[in-house]
Design goal:
The complex is a heterodimer.
Chain A (H helix, E strand, L loop, with lengths): L3 E10 L3 E11 L4 E5 L6 H9 L6 E6 L2 E2 L10 E4 L11 H11 L4 H15 L14 H13 L5 E5 L7 H18 L2 E6 L2 H7 L2 E6 L2 E6 L1 H6 L4 H6 L6 E9 L2 E4 L2 E4 L12 E6 L4 E3 L6 E11 L3 E8 L2 E8 L9 E6 L5 E3 L11
Parallel strand pairs in A: 3-8, 3-9, 6-7, 7-8
Antiparallel strand pairs in A: 1-2, 1-4, 4-5, 9-10, 11-12, 11-14, 12-13, 14-20, 15-19, 16-17, 16-19, 17-18
Helix pairs in contact in A: 2-3, 2-4, 3-4
Chain B lengths: L10 H28 L2 E3 L6 E3 L3 H8 L1 H33 L5 H9 L6 H11 L8 H6 L10 H29 L3 H9 L4 H31 L1 H7 L11 H11 L3 H29 L3
Antiparallel strand pairs in B: 1-2
Helix pairs in contact in B: 1-12, 2-12, 3-7, 3-9, 5-7, 5-10, 7-9, 8-9, 9-12, 11-12
Classes of the chains: A alpha+beta, B mainly alpha.
């Protein structure tokens, strides 16, 4: 097994369109790395460059200690699971899984052993003789994973493998992928636009936007301390609220004339300068009291069962608050929000970078 | 829920299908039934007198060694043309499917020969390979082959196969290209990652996935060679030398129009009709089964 190292990897398409703008990233051996970002952020292109399906315009891709820029996909010792499964429609499930091994001249009994083993792990033993068209979406997905694991590759690559499944199956397969990766311990790179998949699957979360990496970290680091406004609003559901504010002094900002205390604030910010104040819907306490508080005009309430979402405005900006059901009456029109100084995120309005302690 | 339009009465529906029905009846059912009827008659060459002879035309047909020879010629001709036109078209389509510079122009030019009328295509090839006038027969003679499609049956057949293949490649190319473009790119990529080189990828993944297209084209090509090559044969060899490039369909014309044996010629058309019906039936049966792999 091997880790994957990217060094200022670039992809420039014809017409000088730069899809990936110099990405550097180290993925440790055996870890599960998720690339997440909106569509068109370059995450799939990056994955396809690691797979060898796209040429690398600049920089270096290493699998283990080997630079693979010029290596054919077949010789990179990787396996890939595609969004549309990409099963061979004319082959049985067994042949689909055996194809890669046969191409490599693996002995027949070894192929048989490995295919049966993979089928057992994925619980598709009873479908081995069937053709892909006779399987459901979830079963096809398992076959696609089986095809990847029989090869015992150095790296698994997943390109949005769950987006063609229905919501329930997606959750189930997500758990299975995680369990499988833990059991096999193979380095995995997983591309998705779904932030829940990204948070739940990853050891290492890479948030991408516009062909660049916005932030790399564990899921909780990225959630707790987003480095840019983009990451702050992309990770978390409902997204983080961003309010316009001004710097009052060390550890204090003001939002619409209401002063709030902030723990994580950079030193030396000029009082009176504009700043963006980020608050997660689940981090502010609706109806609470405290040293720092904001008042909110409520427009409407969304009931989600266990929780309620209050939509409204704070200091003229859109704001969403999450509260436990029953905590507040649904016809609440005015709310006081207690703000914990430790939960306030500050961003530079120009650079959109975090203005936390260095 | 009701999406069908309701038309009251019979007048409008009948009027709407009338042109189609009229064309089918006048140009297909009527001549076909005429042929069947004529195949049971013996008629003098001027069409002045005829008598009912039952199956006698068929019996005498199967007593002619020329008829069997036309069958063999047709079989050789059609298998050669079908094989070469499919193989060349597939090769060209796989190349055109790649992202190449000027690919669009390449595709357009490849489709042009299909627009050329069979007889004109035949004359074109005849001129190029004419034993004395042909620009291409000189180099052939220069390498020591006594090229003469007018006298040598093998040379004549080669020339026919060349021109018939050349014309049919365009049609096959279009279908193969569409078939190739319908194969999901990710399946090919998966095969590449699975360690299959370009050739192995072609034979184990692409070719099997094209098999419905190939089968369809095979039947269409056989029908083409059986019937639509009449113009080419007539222009290039006229069935000669010594009737050695006379196919079944050319024999219908030769015996009926040139030989004046209308009854025998009609019997031959009826047999051809049965062959086409059989081919079409096979196609419907198998294509429908094989389309979903």
């Amino acid at each position: 097994m091997a880790g994957v190292t990217l060094d200022t990897v670039r992809k420039i398409y014809a017409g000088n369109v730069e899809a990936v703008k110099g990405v550097s990233l180290g993925i440790e051996d055996g870890s599960f790395c998720v690339l997440v970002g909106p569509s068109g952020c370059g995450k799939s292109t990056l994955l396809r460059m690691i797979a060898g399906l796209e040429t690398i315009s600049g920089g270096e891709v290493k699998i283990g200690d080997r630079v693979v820029n010029q290596v054919e996909p077949a010789d990179r010792d990787i396996a890939m699971v595609f969004q549309n499964y990409a099963l061979y429609p004319h082959m049985s499930v067994y042949d689909n899984m055996a194809y890669g091994l046969r191409n490599r001249g693996t002995p027949k009994d070894e192929i048989d052993k490995r295919v049966k083993e993979a089928a057992r792990i994925l619980a598709i033993e009873s479908f081995l003789a069937r053709k892909p068209r006779q399987l459901s979406g979830g079963q096809r997905q398992r076959v696609a994973m089986g095809r990847a694991i029989v090869r015992k590759p150095q790296v698994f690559l997943f390109d949005e493998p769950l987006s063609n499944l229905d919501a329930k199956l997606r959750v189930q397969m997500r758990v299975e992928i995680k369990r499988l990766q833990r059991a096999l311990g193979v380095t995995s790179i997983y591309v998705t636009h779904d932030q829940v998949e990204a948070m739940t699957l990853s050891d290492k979360l890479v948030v991408m936007s516009g062909g660049q990496i916005e932030q790399v970290g564990t899921p909780s680091e990225v959630y707790r301390r987003p480095e840019t406004r983009f990451v702050a609003t992309f990770i978390g559901s409902p997204p983080m609220n961003i309010l316009p504010g001004t710097v009052e002094g060390p550890g204090r900002v003001s939002v619409g004339g209401q002063s709030i205390a902030v723990t994580d604030m950079r030193d030396g910010l000029t009082p009176g300068s504009a700043i963006e104040v980020g608050l997660r819907p689940e981090d502010v306490q609706a109806g609470g009291t405290g040293a720092s508080s904001l008042s909110m005009d409520v427009d409407f309430v969304e009931e989600l069962g266990a929780t309620q979402l209050f939509h409204g405005k704070v200091a003229g900006a859109e704001f969403i608050v999450q509260a436990s059901t029953g905590q507040l009456p649904a016809d609440t029109r005015q709310l006081t929000l207690a703000v914990d100084p430790g939960n306030v995120h500050l961003f530079d309005p120009q650079t959109t970078k975090r203005l936390g302690r260095v | 829920m009701e999406k069908r339009a309701h038309i009251s009465g019979w007048t409008l529906p009948l009027l709407l299908i009338l042109p189609q029905m009229a064309i089918t009846v006048i140009f297909f059912y009527w001549p076909a039934s005429q042929a069947i009827w004529q195949s049971f008659l013996r008629e003098d060459a001027f069409g002045l007198a005829s008598e009912f002879v039952g199956f006698e035309n068929y019996v005498s047909l199967f007593e002619q060694p020329e008829y069997y020879r036309a069958m063999v010629t047709t079989a050789i001709f059609s298998s050669l043309v079908a094989f070469f036109s499919l193989a060349c078209a597939l090769l060209l389509a796989t190349q055109a499917d790649k992202n190449i510079r000027g690919g669009q122009a390449f595709k357009t030019f490849l489709i042009w020969p299909y627009a050329v009328a069979p007889a004109i295509a035949g004359v074109l090839w005849l001129f190029m390979f004419h034993p004395t006038l042909g620009t291409l027969s000189k180099p052939i003679k220069a390498i020591g082959i006594d090229w003469n499609p007018m006298l040598n049956a093998n040379h004549a057949m080669t020339l026919l196969v060349l021109s018939a293949t050349w014309k049919q490649i365009s049609y096959n190319f279009l279908f193969f290209l569409a078939g190739l473009q319908a194969i999901p790119k990710s399946v090919i990529e998966a095969a590449a990652i699975d360690g299959a080189g370009p050739l192995r990828r072609f034979w184990t993944v692409i070719f099997p996935l094209l098999s419905p297209t190939t089968f369809f084209l095979l039947v269409v090509n056989i029908v083409y060679v059986f019937f639509d090559t009449f113009g080419i044969i007539d222009a290039v060899t006229g069935g000669g030398p010594a009737g050695q490039t006379t196919t079944l369909v050319y024999k219908v014309y030769a015996d009926g129009r040139l030989g004046g044996d209308l009854g025998g010629s009609a019997a031959q058309s009826v047999i051809l009709m049965i062959i086409v019906i059989a081919l079409t039936a096979i196609q419907f049966r198998y294509v429908e089964r094989k389309v979903q792999y």
